[in-house]
Amino acid sequence: MTTAQAPAPIPAPAPASAPASGAVGDIEHRIEAAMPQLTPQEQRVAEFILDHVSELAVYNSSELAGMSGVSKATVSRLYRRLGFASSHEVREHVLARRSAGTPLGAAGAPAASPEGVAALLASERENLARLLDALAGGTLHAVVSALVEAREVLVVGYRNSYPVALHVREQLVQCRGRVRIAPQPGQSLGEDLADLGEGDVVVLVGFRRRPARFAEILDAVVATGARCILITDPSGRALAARADLIIECPLESPAAFDSYASAMSLVSLVASAVLGADIRRGRSRIAGIDATYRGLAEIEGV
């Protein structure tokens, strides 16, 4: 009589606990590579996982087995074949990816349902409250003073940070002159840093899923002699010692993607405070900009 042997594990090229996002070690890629070798029951739970990746951070093997209609042993066997030692390791894998900003979706009410909308609203309120608490210790005053006194302000942002950086520039330029954004589309950063020095301020926006060499970019900014204001999320806390000032914007959301509502609120708050710091100069600049709008017929209703 021959004894049936368990299928050999499929090797994973990256550690299961913290694979690089998008790398072949992600659980989806492991499943796709393994799918032709899985049993029908294993394929059943594998397909369920592909549709509910984020729920792996919430449910244990028994609960996942019940939802996918297979046995707990099948779930455990599948995890081993994918290179995970346990359901705990799978949860750590998913949580690490979510913490890095990978849009996995979330377990719970669908985003478009009344319950999902209510959860989103509660999350946004919490994020804003946490941001305002962090600003209460004098950080906001220090940031505003730096921006008011700066000879020139350069705002830098990459990838998902670029829209927030652009909003910083568009709001500040209403209040004061000499505000630039970098890098421009298709351009490098070196030219924009070359003329900076003492008396200038760089607002560096760097939310999670930053460029791989973001720390080197921060060091290059600091090396110019300009003051650096870093706007980031809690994942950028390790960079705090390199910047002159740091503001953390919570990005957590029950939806699949990070929320930048707190970051946009921060921009509005800072720009309003910069305008209020020298209201006469600010109003004079706004009036001049509006006159140019009218002369060029650029803006509706101006």
Secondary structure: elements and pairs:
Blueprint lengths: L26 H8 L5 H12 L9 H8 L3 H10 L5 H13 L14 H22 L3 H11 L3 E5 L4 H14 L3 E4 L7 H5 L6 E6 L7 H10 L3 E6 L12 E4 L12 H17 L1 H18 L6
Parallel strand pairs: 1-2, 1-3, 3-4, 4-5
Helix pairs in contact: 2-3, 2-4, 3-4, 6-11, 7-11, 8-11
Task: Write structural notes for this entry.
- With 302 residues, the protein is of the alpha/beta class.
- It has 2 domains: 27-99, Winged helix-like DNA-binding domain superfamily/Winged helix DNA-binding domain (Arc Repressor Mutant, subunit A, Orthogonal Bundle); 127-296, Glucose-6-phosphate isomerase like protein, domain 1 (Rossmann fold), CATH 3.40.50.10490.
- Helix content is 49%, strand content 8%.
- The protein contains 12 helices and 5 strands.
- The protein has helices at 27-34, 40-51, 61-68, 72-81, 87-99, 114-135, 139-149, 162-175, 190-194, 214-223, 261-277, 279-296, and strands spanning 153-157, 179-182, 201-206, 227-232, 245-248.
- Strands 2-1-3-4-5 form a 5-stranded parallel β-sheet, sandwiched between helices.
- The longest helix has 22 residues, at 114-135.
- The radius of gyration is 25 Å and the shape is elongated.
- The model is unreliable at 1-24 (pLDDT under 50).
**If you consult CATH, what is the topology of the largest domain?**
Rossmann fold
What gross morphology would you assign? elongated
Ranges with pLDDT <50 over ≥5 residues? 1-24
**How is the biggest beta sheet arranged?**
5 strands, parallel
- What is the terminal separation in angstroms? 89 Å
Written as H for each helix and E for each strand, in order along the chain, the element string is HHHHHHHEHEHEHEEHH
